[in-house]
Specification:
Distance between the termini: 39 Å
Order of helices and strands: EHEHEEHHEHEHEE
Structural class: alpha/beta
Number of domains: 1
CATH architecture: 3-Layer(aba) Sandwich
Length: about 210
């Protein structure tokens, strides 16, 4: 079966913010999208620590991403550099690394492929397809900032996991959805996670 141009790639690495990844994938699968997922060993450790979920890196359970949706989840081992998404001839609509560790960011900035995540990211850059990197690190060193500049100059979009407060979030889920909504916007995926600036919600408060 040939890949659809609408297929998306999601890489999950060892930075804090595992909930952003699981929520993003849940939304995409709920919309019927095909999602290719690659999780690094450090990413699995963060999911365990933050969400209390144990990940089998060789056999991923789709139930991790909420209720079954009409979409299709395709899991790839981080070691499998022969996977389709490692090739520029495999068409996709874009890739998101969420959360994106500083080590992964550095690999991409240097054009180094040590696993399927960094390889697929390099493919998206060379093919000029959307590549969204969602770092969650503070404070940032000069090395981090320079690497962000390099990947941005190469065509990636750096989208820090920095939820806004102007929409009066009431729960942690609201803060997660704020960041996920920004990712979906950049992918051109329609959603109703939150209202946009100037749109009213209950109580007359404007939300993002």
């Amino acid at each position: 079966m040939s890949p659809s141009p609408g297929e998306l790639v999601i890489g999950i690495t060892g930075a804090s913010g595992a909930a952003y990844a699981t929520r993003l994938i849940e939304i995409l699968l709920g919309q019927g999208r095909t999602v290719h997922v690659v999780i690094s060993p450090s990413g699995a450790q963060v999911i365990q620590q933050e969400l209390g979920i144990t990940i089998d890196l060789e056999h991923l359970d789709p139930a991790l991403f909420g209720k079954p949706g009409p979409g299709r989840l395709i899991h790839h081992s981080h070691r499998n550099l022969a996977a389709g998404i490692a090739s520029g001839s495999f068409r996709t609509a874009g890739m998101v690394i969420v959360p994106c560790s500083m080590s992964t960011l550095g690999l991409i900035a240097g054009g180094i492929s040590t696993n399927l995540i960094s390889r697929a990211a390099g493919v998206h850059l060379k093919e000029k397809r959307p590549l969204i990197l969602v770092p969650r690190e503070t404070p940032l060193s000069v090395i981090h900032l320079e690497n962000m500049t390099r990947v941005a100059q190469a065509g990636a979009l750096v989208l820090p996991a920095a939820p806004g407060w102007y929409n009066n979030p009431r729960t942690l889920a609201d803060l997660v959805d704020f960041v996920v909504a920004r990712i979906l916007d950049q992918l051109g995926v329609e959603h109703s996670l939150s209202a946009r600036w100037g749109e009213s919600h209950e109580g007359g408060k404007a939300r993002s």
